[in-house]
Specification:
The complex is a heterodimer of chains A (517) and B (392). Chain A is mainly alpha-helical. Chain A has 20 helices and 6 strands. The chains are: A mainly alpha (517), B mainly alpha (392).
Chain lengths: 517, 392
């Protein structure tokens, strides 16, 4: 080959290596940046007055007087909206009342039409919901159309039918509109308090409020005129209310949303310390965080003593031989067992075999098995890194082997052991598969802060709930910020643990370098 | 600690003949030491034996399934209706799903990982590769559920809407430089034998044009085909393969980097002294010498991808069907791990049914495969150790 070609091959080889490294860094950024960016909106966001009202009512945080003045302000801003709706409703009622006269006239007839009408009219009741009365009349006109025999009555009934149809569509449109407005602003004044928590408050976040405002202004429809794929189209809702009292409502809402919801920049640290309410539509992720902490600490509690003892044995006592290499193969096999198999084992052995309850203890034990090989390996490395001279010095002072290990080798290796432990903590905090069957519950009571009471309680955990919420939550779109916030939190927890380990390791290597020179 | 310090000082203060232990005390100390040592051994053995117990327990729970249902259906049928009546427990499609996803991950991760390892160990200066190392560690530390979240919430919609164009860009990015180099190298190889200087040059130019033209045609054809691809669902085997590939990268990079660095300086120096370029040295000398370690890296990558649960459960689409054609990566698949995770919740209540035990049979397959991979890598390590010892 020519020398230039060889050079070119050499360069392209190098650049492929560089390319793969750049790609790796890029992959990291592509994954982390959006998660952190959108995750931060769980804590820092434009909170509306509804958010503050929620905090005050549910967590008793905030200033009551300030809240009261804010509520008067937003009620003043919202008043025109509800007034317009009320006017419209009154008008609809009048339309319905106007139907009374022709209907009673029909009821006076002695034929089947008269009887039918009479029976139906009895069902009308002012106390019933408006739409029910409308439906009653609508059914009547439907039935009457079948009974018509003479032409002059037919025209009358058809007119009746057309009017009631119009009232019905208008009322239905109004119900939809009111529902959309309630989702944006919360329940209307005077309305009975809904049972469901999510219906008691309007939008707590300005970004969600804008989505909801769009839903107030436009109706989402699917256009199937194009063969195959449907296309989303938005139809202005105002078209339904042209020429009515409600027509100016849409312009008013669009221009006055800010006055009605009063968004302001909020730092919601409660995201990390509040419990969640109404499956994460409100509140924070404290139960998940606490569950993860318990599971992780539990796993460390079981795995570290065992792992460190095994590491001491391997590094200080074991003589090479068949048994030792067999044990080593066993441990490296344990490191290669898929995490879901640990979960199965935990279910079959701890839960179904030993009859432990599904809870923190079973989950911690299973996680301990997952991190055991890592701890053994890192502790062994740390112990082996202790210079020989330490041991020799201790032994020459007459210390027994055991005492040498306990008083000299382990203290010297402690930072290294700690590094391994911290890294395993990160691993345990992030694992999901081992705890699915042994500890995780999508909805559970928040764990108590007393560790002795929690061992038999199933718990939420960050890792499990991320899965659970983004695949099974009924309103996953509404809680995107919670999902991203949770994912960012779990990544940050793990990264902080790793960072801590890296710093520890750097300090150890500095120390070792300082001592050898 | 304080107790031992006190004891030490007391020893120093006593007369010297007290330092000599009586034979009884000596015996007691020896027995104590022996007991302590056996305690240590016991704990260690327990820690190590756990894996055997796991294998035993999974197997114990898997065997009832084979007793009830036999082996044939499990391995040869693609019908997976565990809750049907009668239930069907054919795992072929699910195993194919696992295989597809793992293969895809390996295709993504091995070239990139090995190239990155080579770059880190031999090409970049030490200080830079030291700063890149934490990035690899961060990539390894991110929890799998976060990868799964990314795959499901961010990557899947992207793939569904822009998938064809993304693939096209990826294809051009990779294929253009690769085909360019291939063209030059092949045309040189073809004309290598021609001795006459000027005729060789013309022949080479001709070869360049012919090859280049056909490669450009191929490039554009494949690029257009990919660009016009419509992807019906973003949660498919391709998505999962790419994400699993990224997840397995750190393992592959760090293990193969260790393997490359374990190859001595002398081999590199010798190769450079013979006039080889860096690429030639690495490809023809260092990588063959480190092939065992790189193979272990690949094995570990396979194990990581095959054993991963959350990503595949969230983003593979979970359809227990054989894609048509069977290698179609754009269709949803279902893997062993995801099936275990997803079906265990429903099967748990009826402990003792085949529906429960079939999951353990799947777990046993996973476990056996990982066990096998592990044995192979152990064998490679021990063989290499022997070789090194022999050389020394």
């Amino acid at each position: 080959m020519k020398i230039t070609t060889r050079k070119m091959l050499d360069r392209s080889f190098s650049s492929f290596g560089l390319f793969s490294i750049v790609l790796m860094i890029l992959a990291l950024l592509v994954i982390l940046v959006p998660i952190f960016k959108r995750g931060s909106t769980a804590i820092v966001f434009n909170g509306t007055v509804e958010h503050r009202r929620f905090l005050l009512e549910r967590f008793e945080r905030g200033d009551e007087q300030e809240m009261a003045s804010e509520i008067t302000a937003i009620q003043a801003a919202q008043k025109p909206v509800y007034d317009m709706i009320e006017h419209f409703e009154n008008r609809q009622r009048k339309y319905l009342d106007a139907l009374n006269e022709p209907l009673t006239k029909l009821a006076k007839r002695s034929d089947s039409i008269g009887r039918l009408t009479k029976r139906r009219l009895k069902r009308l009741d002012k106390n019933k919901p408006f739409l029910t009365n409308v439906k009653t009349i609508q059914k009547l006109t439907d039935r009457l159309k079948g009974h018509v025999d003479s032409d002059n009555i037919q025209a009358e009934i058809e007119q009746l039918d057309a009017t009631i149809q119009k009232i019905e569509t208008q009322t239905k449109n109004l119900v939809e509109l009111k529902e959309a407005i309630r989702e944006l602003l919360g329940p209307a004044p005077g309305e009975t308090r809904p049972v469901l928590l999510r219906k008691q408050y309007g939008q707590t976040r300005w970004d969600r409020a804008q989505v909801k405002l769009h839903e107030v202004l436009y109706i989402e429809k699917w256009d199937y005129s194009n063969e195959g794929m449907g296309r989303k189209v938005f139809e202005p809702r105002v078209e339904h209310f042209r020429g009515t009292e409600i027509e100016p409502l849409f312009d008013y809402m669009e221009t006055n949303t800010e006055a009605m919801l009063r968004p302001q920049l909020t730092f919601y640290w409660g995201f990390l310390t509040d419990k969640s309410m109404d499956i994460h539509i409100f509140g924070g992720i404290f139960p998940e965080l606490l569950g993860t902490v318990y599971l992780t600490l539990g796993a460390i509690l079981f795995a570290v003593p065992m792992g460190v003892i095994a590491a001491i044995y391997f590094s200080e006592y074991a003589r090479p031989g068949i048994i030792i290499s067999f044990l080593r193969i066993c441990i490296s096999t344990l490191a290669g067992v898929p995490s879901i198999v640990f979960g199965m084992f935990g279910l079959a052995f701890l839960l179904n075999g030993c009859h432990l309850p599904k809870g923190v203890l079973a989950g911690s034990l299973t996680l301990a098995l997952v991190i055991l090989p890592t701890i053994i390996r890192s502790a062994e490395e740390a112990i082996r890194a202790v210079p020989r001279t330490y041991r020799e010095a201790a032994l020459s002072l007459g210390a027994s082997r055991w005492r040498t290990v306990v008083t000299v080798v382990i203290p010297a290796a402690l930072p290294g052991i700690l590094t391994g432990t911290v890294i395993s903590m990160g691993r345990a905090a992030g694992e999901t598969a081992p705890i699915i069957f042994t500890a995780a519950a999508s909805v559970a009571a928040t764990l108590s802060l007393n560790p002795l009471q929690v061992w038999d309680q199933p718990t939420q955990a960050l890792s499990w709930n991320i899965y659970n919420l983004c695949t099974e939550h009924e309103a996953a779109n509404e809680i995107q910020h919670v999902l991203f916030g949770m994912t960012a939190t779990i990544i940050l927890v793990v990264l902080f643990l790793n960072l801590f380990a890296i710093i520890l390791r750097a300090r150890i290597s500095k120390k070792l370098k300082g001592e050898t020179t | 600690m304080s107790v031992t310090v006190l004891k030490k000082t007391s020893i120093l203060n006593t007369p010297s003949d007290n330092l000599v232990l009586s034979s009884r005390a000596n015996l007691a100390q020896n027995i104590l030491a022996w007991i302590g040592q056996s305690f240590l051994f016991l704990v260690t053995a327990t820690a190590a034996m756990i894996v055997l117990f796991i294998i035993f327990y999974i197997a114990k729970n898997a065997i009832p399934f084979f007793q009830i249902q036999g082996l044939t259906e499990f391995f040869t049928s693609a019908e997976w209706y565990p809750s049907g009546d009668p239930p069907a427990f054919g795992v072929l499609a699910i195993m194919l799903g696992s295989t597809l996803v793992t293969l895809g991950a390996i295709v993504v991760t091995v070239p990139l990982g090995v190239a990155a390892a080579v770059c880190l160990s031999d090409i970049l200066p030490f200080s830079i590769s030291q700063t890149i190392k934490p990035i690899v560690e961060i990539l390894a530390a991110i929890p799998s559920v976060a990868y799964g979240f990314f795959a499901l919430v961010i990557f899947a919609p992207l793939l569904q809407e822009e998938g064809g164009r993304l693939l096209m860009v990826g294809w051009y990015l990779l294929a253009v430089p690769f085909l360019f180099i291939i063209t030059i190298v092949i045309s040189e190889m073809l004309t290598f034998k021609i001795t006459h200087e000027s005729s060789r040059k013309t022949a080479r130019t001709a070869a360049l044009f012919v090859l280049g033209g056909s490669f450009i045609a191929l490039l554009i054809f494949v690029g257009n085909t990919l660009g016009n691809l419509t992807i019906t669902t973003g949660t498919n085997a391709l998505n999962v393969s790419i994400i699993l590939g990224i997840m397995a990268l750190p393992t592959v990079v760090s293990v193969s980097q260790d393997a490359l660095q374990a190859v001595g300086r002398e081999l590199r120096d010798a190769s450079y002294a013979l006039g080889a370029t860096r690429a030639e040295t690495l490809i023809k000398v260092i990588m063959p010498a480190a092939s065992g370690g790189i193979f272990i890296a690949v094995l570990l990558g396979i194990m990581r991808a095959l054993g991963e649960t959350m990503v595949v459960w969230m983003a593979s689409g979970n359809a227990a069907q054989i894609p048509s054609p069977w290698f179609n990566y754009l269709q949803p698949v279902r893997t062993l791990t995801a099936t275990i995770a997803g079906d265990m919740g429903e099967a748990d209540q009826v402990t003792g049914s085949s529906r429960y035990h079939v999951l353990f049979a799947m777990g046993l397959i996973l476990l056996m495969f990982c066990f096998l991979c592990n044995l192979v890598s152990e064998w490679i390590v021990s063989r290499q150790r022997k070789k090194l010892r022999g050389e020394n």
